[in-house]
Design goal:
The chain is α/β, with parallel strands linked by helices.
Length: 306
C-alpha cells in the first residue's frame, strides 16, 4: 500500500488448520488482530499490521496474504530464530475448540523497542487486544508502550479483550486488560470474556463497568444475543443479531472489530458502525476459517437491507 495506514493493528498472527467434516484440515490464517486488520481492509480502510513473524513458510504465507488483502506490511518484522505460531480448530456440538502451538513464537519476542512510534503517530486508530498482551511480558509491555504513544499523539485506541486463560491466569489477565482499558477510546469486550474478567453477569452492568474504567464507548459483543452499545453520553442501544446459516464462529468477534473500526474511520456514527459490524460478524460465521468468510461491503449491505 502506498497510502499511510489510518488503522494500525498490533498482535500475533497464527497459521490456522481448521478441521472439516471430511476429517481433513483446511489451511488458513488467524490471529485476532490480523483478522480484524484484514476485515477492515476488505471494508475499504487503509490498514497496516505490527508484529514479528518467522522467516518460515507460514511467515511467507502471511506476508503474501496481507499484501493480497491490501494490509501494509512495512513494519512487520521477520525473525529467523523464532517460528510463526500455529493453531488447530475442531468442531463439535458445543461449537469450535482451539489447540494452540505458539510457545516461543516470533510475535512473543515483540518488545517496546520494536514499536514504530512514528507510524502510530501518523495513524488515526491503534487496535490491540488481550492476546496481544498475553503472549509474553515483552509483548505486554510493547502494547502499553504503543498505547502511550498513541494517546500522546491524539490517536484513538481500540481494545478487544479476547481472553485466553491458557495464556495467563484470570487475575493477571483482569489486571492487565483493565489497566489497558483505562487508556483506550473504544472498548470491544465479548460477553463471555467480560463475565470472567469482571465477575458480573448482566450485560448492562458489564457495560457500565467498562465505561467507568475510562473508555467513552463500549460495544459489548454478545454473540447470538447481538451487541450492546453503551457510551459515556448515556446512549444505550441493543442491536439484535442477524439470522444466518452459521457453520464456524472462528474470528466473528474480530470481524466485528475490523468492520466497526473501518466504518468509524469512514465517518459513521457509533450506532451505524455497530449495526454494520454486527451484520459483518454474522456473515463471517457462514464459512470455515477466520479469514476466508470475511465479507465485502456489498454482502454486508445486502444482509442489512434484506
Amino acid at each position: 500500500m502506498s497510502a499511510t495506514p489510518e488503522l494500525l493493528c498490533l498482535g500475533e498472527p497464527m497459521l490456522e488448520l481448521n478441521r472439516q467434516e471430511s476429517g481433513l484440515y483446511l489451511e488458513g490464517h488467524g490471529g485476532d488482530t490480523s483478522n480484524a486488520a484484514i476485515c477492515a481492509a476488505r471494508q475499504g480502510a487503509r490498514v497496516g499490521y505490527l508484529t514479528a513473524i518467522g522467516t518460515d513458510r507460514p511467515g511467507d504465507s502471511f506476508m503474501a496474504l496481507w499484501q493480497a488483502e491490501g494490509v501494509d506490511t512495512t513494519h512487520v518484522l521477520r525473525r529467523a530464530a523464532a517460528p510463526t505460531a500455529l493453531y488447530l480448530v475442531t468442531h463439535d456440538a458445543r461449537g469450535h475448540e482451539f489447540t494452540f502451538y505458539r510457545s516461543g513464537s516470533a510475535a512473543s519476542t515483540y518488545a517496546p523497542a520494536d514499536v514504530p512510534d512514528a507510524a502510530i503517530r501518523a495513524a488515526r486508530i491503534l487496535h490491540v487486544s488481550g492476546i496481544s498482551q498475553a503472549i509474553s511480558t515483552s509483548a505486554c509491555d510493547a502494547v502499553f508502550h504503543a498505547i502511550g504513544v498513541a494517546k500522546a499523539a491524539g490517536v484513538r485506541v481500540s481494545y478487544d479483550t479476547n481472553l485466553r486463560l491458557r495464556l495467563w491466569p484470570r487475575a493477571r489477565a483482569a489486571a492487565v486488560i483493565h489497566a489497558a482499558m483505562a487508556s483506550v477510546d473504544i472498548a470491544l469486550p465479548s460477553l463471555d470474556d467480560a463475565r470472567v474478567l469482571t465477575g458480573l453477569a448482566a450485560p448492562e452492568a458489564i457495560a457500565e463497568f467498562y465505561l467507568r474504567l475510562g473508555p467513552p464507548l463500549v460495544a459489548l459483543k454478545m454473540g447470538s444475543a447481538g451487541v450492546l452499545l453503551a457510551q459515556a453520553d448515556g446512549t444505550r442501544l441493543v442491536i439484535p443479531p442477524h439470522q444466518v446459516d452459521a457453520v464456524d464462529a472462528t474470528g466473528a468477534g474480530d470481524a466485528f472489530a475490523g468492520a466497526f473500526l473501518a466504518r468509524t474511520l469512514a465517518g459513521d456514527a457509533p450506532d451505524a458502525a455497530a449495526r454494520y459490524a454486527n451484520a459483518c460478524a454474522a456473515l463471517s460465521t457462514t464459512g470455515y476459517g477466520a479469514v476466508a468468510p470475511l465479507p465485502r461491503p456489498e454482502a454486508v449491505r445486502a444482509l442489512m437491507t434484506g
